[in-house]
Amino acid sequence: MPASPAAETAALLAWYDRHRRALPWRATGRAGPDPYAVWLSEVMLQQTTVAAVKGFYARFLALWPDVAALAAAPREAVLKEWAGLGYYARARNLHDCAQAVVERHGGRFPSTEAALRALPGIGDYTAAAVAAIAFGEVATVVDGNVERVMTRLRAVETPVPAARPEIKRLTAALVPPGRPGDFAQATMDLGATICTPRSPACALCPLAGSCAAHAAGTELRYPRKLPKKATPRRFGAMAVVERQDGAVLVRTRPAKGLLGGMTEFFGSDWGAASPDAAAMAQASDAALRAVGTVEHVFTHFALTLDVYRGRSHGGLAPEGCRWVTREALAREPIPNVFTKVWEAASAVVPVVPVVPDGLRLVGLE
DNA sequence: CACGCGTGGGG
DNA sequence: TCCCCAAGCGT
Which parts of the sequence belong to the HhH-GPD domain (predicted)? Predict the structure, then answer.
């Protein structure tokens, strides 16, 4: 028997009051949530797990305790602190957004969904979440959790993303004017801990009594999704090249696109095949030793990198590259895929044998 | 609307 | 091992 929407909302809020997760960005005291903290956490949580976010969130808040501090930070420092969290456009948008809040709004976050939506890196979800959680606006928050909860609750047959408007309507009908932020977090907590994708714990769910999918035993059927495409594989090569004094050859990737603005070691383009060792040695003007391969899976392709370690012949940086000391390397924004390369190269004997002039020692074991 | 865009954990 | 996925956004 379907309960009334009001009864469903009440049951969900009562469950949340007992079982809400204690998360660092959730206000505990009487003072309302800090909009800056809510915004920072929401951006970090975009397509990212709570467990992965916690450490980054703490470090950001310690380094930059308010939006003005973040806005004043150097862009490279923000990218460096974001390194490892992924989706690096978020870091650029985060920094742009902080500066926009300072310049356009006097350093205070706007309090309405519409005004938030106009800021960089804030889309439909984040605008509604910040408005509801930080400012109490009656906004409808729809994320992946809400989609799963609502499509199961109402047995929505339309596949996502086409079902988005319907899901938004169904959700809006449940939002309580008095506690919009708690309702949003309650639905997300339910999706994260009870109404999970693979094995939902319906016996513990406060909405089980009115859930259409549960009544039919078809929870796992929702949300319906369109078939996904296979992920192709690309190949490339990357070399950790040292100068006589130990400095390492790096370069900064283009500002936008994959790993935009992040630091990488000397490497080839990525395509159907990787270049051979001789080509890498010539391009880097270094004696190279092959040290193995690194595998990494991005969202839309898998990558196999042949990894080399070597010693520069002349100490001249190829076009677009620069030398950094090991100490300075620690301050570079290096994404995890290239940290894997560094670790693979560091695991082998660093000394490259002396070779006669004109010879290139390549691809040796 | 479809695609580009990271990473790590769990079943 | 492999596949799925997690509090999406910009173009």
Answer: 44-193
Our answer to whether residue A103 is catalytic in this structure is no
Candidates A159, A251, A174, A247; CA nearest to A206 is A174
A41 nearest nucleotide via C1' and CA: C7
Active-site residue, from A42, A137, A147, A219: A42
State the nucleotide closest to A21 in CA–C1' terms: C7
The architecture in CATH of the region A5-221 reads: Orthogonal Bundle (1.10)
Can you tell me which residue has its alpha carbon closest to the C1' of nucleotide C11? A257
Q: Which residues of A37-49 are buried (b: 16+ CB within 10 A; e: fewer)?
A: bbbbbbbbbbeee
Spatial separation of the C-alpha atoms in residues A140 and A176, rounded to whole Å: 10
Q: What ranges do the domains of chain A cover?
A: 5-221, 233-346
Out of A14-18, A30-34, A96-100, pick the least confident. Answer: A30-34
**Distance between CA A346 and CA A328 in Å, rounded?**
17
**pLDDT digit string, tens, across residues A46-97:** 999 999 999 999 999 999 999 999 999 999 999 999 999 999 999 999 999 9
- The CATH class of A233-346 is alpha beta
